[in-house]
Amino acid sequence: MKDIINILPDNVANQIAAGEVVQRPASVVKELLENAIDANATLIKINIKDAGKTLIQVIDNGIGMSKNDASICFDRHTTSKISKADDLFNIKSKGFRGEALASISAVSHVNLITKQPGVELATEIEVHGSDLKHNKSTVSEIGTKISVKNLFFNIPARRNFLKSNNVEFRHIVNEFIRVSLAHPEVKFIFINDGSEIYNLPNSNFKKRIVNLFGLKTSEKLVPVSENTEILKIDGYIFKPQYAKKTRGEQFFFVNNRFIKSPYLNHAINSAFEGLIDSKYNPSYFLNLDVDTNTIDINIHPTKTEIKFEDEHSVYAILRSSVKHSLGQYNISPVLDFDRDKSLDVPYNYNDNNQPASVGIDVNTNYNPFDAKYVKIDSFEKHMNSLEFSSESNELKEFDFEDINKEVSLNHTIQLNRKYIINKTKSGLIIVNQERAHQRILYEKYLKSVTSNNFSSQKLLNPIEIQFNKQEMGILISNKNLLVQFGLEFDSESDKIIIKTIPSFIDYEKLKLSFENLIFNIQNEIPDNSFSESDLISKIMSKTLSIKNGKSLDVKEQQYLINALFACKETMISPFNKKTFVKIDFSEIENMFK
Hints:
The chain is of the alpha+beta class. Helices cover 31% and strands 22% of the residues. Mean pLDDT is 80; it is low at 80-85, 333-364 and 366-402.
């Protein structure tokens, strides 16, 4: 039989290896920044163009490389942190050059200029797709400058797989924030498409957090500190009142390396139990210092996951430390979220001469859906931005031809605050309330945007809302889209000044609406869109739709059923998720045979 196993050419092997290391531009940014850190740099500049697809340039003032090191660092299986197998379990650095450069150069055009102290000339090397173009001497300052151009130029399928510039840039910023937080002693300058995004002076950890997330962050922080034989903990948590519905600023660093750990995150959530609603997420910036012999950081190619030798003790110590900090700063737990919160006495309450609470008369007969009070369109404003919980639903094939004729609107019930069950002539329809409302809003908004027929209101007193730099960047880059939707605002360094809002956005929930808006833009909605009108309609339909978990009365249930089947497309949400399923009575009968 003919031999079928071949030895791959170096260029093919390099491209395969690159797939493990270089998943997107942000992967390159992470590797180059970490290389610069391990070069003992005190100043690192990063320059990005076209969300890293055209250029990723990292310049540092570190120790540089010798001519020989510069020559071999593009070869496979080269590194400065491992010389024997045991070193795999005692890694303290991030990897000085080598290691990832072979993978990066296999799928891009790389130019490297590096110079060591005490050496007259620098070394310049150009590599295109693993092919060496030149290796020569040049004039340069001490340190290293690496320019990665035309990423995935030789793998069109991989390049086409990249997301929109907004999404790819978000990933780059995330990696930058993680590295810069882990090393506040280093000055960072971040330039994107010619504009300076960050200029972070060398500082302590707290100042680095404030410089990244805004001046107002300082008043939100509670310090956490613990020193045991197993680990040392140092960092900050946000006060409970600043918890977010979406996952906010959550950072774990183990030995100055960012990690993701659902297990440790659970420890933090447990420490906040009784202080925040279970639907909210605490923010934290925590450094964990442990013996390298007690952890394994090689369980994931990107080293963002970690295995502790005694994870139960780490969990317990972390939870205890956070609870201690919350208690030390007089932040006491609330015993019951369902009780009357007017009974709570603030922990800093000093004035005993406050007037008694004023009673409130409630009209129990008031119906917000009665035509004499409001138009039916106010339903959307009434049902804005509650909790989101998504589950997939399997839908059997069936004929929808006359389904509108089957709906009987007097028989609706809500199940698990998520599904609306409606009896029809031939069976039952089960509607996912969030997806249904997304479809309703999407078609309404798309029609209004394309016809430029949005009703908006100018605010007599503009509203200021503060965001961190990353959030500000998202809002500013999408400002033109939001203007089409009737949202007009000016921007300053760390805040927006809202001047006009669409009439259906709840004035009292502007902050929450913008937080949800940013979250939805971050979660790659733009990549499912075909036009700007389609994009903004999808973003806003997801932002302003009712959420699964919201209790609906009969009128609200009936509105959703009626409005859904008045849509042009009833079967799927704007994000291609099934809006409802149908169960025939014959299927139900078969269940009891």
